Amino acid sequence: MTDHEKARKKILHILNDGEDELSGRMIEAHALRHEVRVVDLRRSDVSYERLVDEILAHDKVISW
Hints:
The protein is built from 3 helices and 3 strands, in the order H-E-H-E-H-E. By secondary structure, the chain is of the alpha/beta class. Strand 1 (about 10-15), helix 2 and strand 2 form a beta-alpha-beta unit. The mean pLDDT is about 95.
């Protein structure tokens, strides 16, 4: 495993009120070096059971 692969993290961004300029820039920056997933809680199809699974499966979680 290379140093780059070791440093690569799984990051989950949870958007409470949708994406704004700052969160959008941060998500884009993280996506350059890490595996990024974004969950927008404004969507009606969000499964909170699945969200808990996602939180536990990621190295870092950021809530906006």
